[in-house]
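Re: the request from the purification team.
They wanted to know what the chain is likely to look like in 3D before they choose a buffer screen. I agreed to run a prediction and write the result into the notebook, where they can find it.
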Amino acid sequence: MNQNPPYWGLSSCIDLYDCDLNLMQDAPAIKEFVVRLCEKIGMRRYGETHVVHFGDDPRVEGFSMMQLIETSLISAHFANASRAIYLDVFSCAPYDPKAAAEYAKEYFKAERYNLQSVERR
């Protein structure tokens, strides 16, 4: 039986709102989130998680994160001023986007989230 999905990859955009600002501004906490998220959705990390703080404009200032996974990439931007996190998960291996969104909401203590997923062909 073929276990491969009928598409090349799945891309999920997870927008988290009213998150815990202290967690959003904590690089080690962000790295720990990535490790746990990968475990939850069955992804194998490739290399270390990159977390970089930047932004001259206070509206967009915050950390950005990038983690290569063996089947593609997880990335995010943490917008301090709005307490929003914009998380993207792309993988050619199947995963549960809702499980990723629910875990991110729980970890960053978000009040709510918006999830959009697209099958990439």
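For the purification team: The domain at 18-110 is CATH 3.60.90.10 (S-adenosylmethionine decarboxylase).
Please add any questions underneath this entry.
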